[in-house]
Amino acid sequence: MNRFEVPIAQLTFTEKLDLMEMLWADMAGNEKNLESPAWHEAILSDREAALQAGKITVSNWEEAKERIKKNVA
User: Fold this and answer.
1) Confidence (pTM)
2) For the stretch 13-43, what's the b/e string if a residue is b when 16 or more beta carbons lie within 10 angstroms of its beta carbon?
3) Are 19 and 9 in contact, with CB atoms under 8 Å apart?
4) Which tens digit of pLDDT belongs to each residue from 2-46?
5) Which residues form the domain of 66?
6) Within a domain: residue 55?
7) Residue 43 domain flag
């Protein structure tokens, strides 16, 4: 497939969102083609080790959202 130019600067905000949604839907439907970069594995391993060592804790999604809201405000 040849590379092509998309006039992104000329698209409306809504058109840009539509384009992102189309791309995401297509990519998400082909998960086997999406490989995580090698550095993801290193970070996950480090976090798992920290969790096992008791250096970090986990929280449920609702608690995490509240903490994020407080930190952003």
Assistant:
1) 0.47
2) eeeeeeeeeeeeeeeeeeeeeeeeeeeeeee
3) no
4) 888 989 999 999 999 999 999 999 888 877 777 888 899 999 999
5) 39-73
6) yes
7) yes
